[in-house]
Amino acid sequence: MSDVKKFLENGGLLAFIGGAATALIAPGLLRSARVRKAAVYAVAKGMQLQSDAAVALAEIREDAQDIYHEARDRARRKAQGEDAEENEV
């Protein structure tokens, strides 16, 4: 008895009922033109978001590389300038 009570408390029954309902209803919905149109729209939007995110990431990566190279060049120039000062002394 405690196993059944534990199953009900954890939401297992609701998950089971939801899964069974989906299995029964899904085939009919998938044949619907409206649902298919919505699914195609959702997938297309998702693909567009992925593409936009990839472009934004590439731009961020380029900016970060530019900052890195500028900092590295400044550090080299500073080190060479300090070395030149030490050689003069």
Briefly characterize the structure.
Helix content is 93%, strand content 0%. It has 89 residues and is mainly α.
Task: Point out poorly predicted stretches.
Answer: none
Strand content: under 5%
Q: Structural class from helices and strands?
A: mainly alpha
| SSE string, helices as H and strands as E | HHH
Give the count of helical stretches.
3
Helix content: over 70%
How many domains comprise the coordinates?
A: 2
Termini Cα gap:
90 Å
Shape: elongated
> Mean pLDDT, nearest integer?
84
The major β-sheet equals: none
What does this protein structure show overall?
The chain has 89 residues and is an all-alpha fold. It has two domains: 1-31; 40-89. It is 93% helix and 0% strand. The protein is elongated, with a radius of gyration of 30 Å.
Pick out its properties.
about 90 residues, mainly alpha, about 95% helix, about 0% strand, elongated
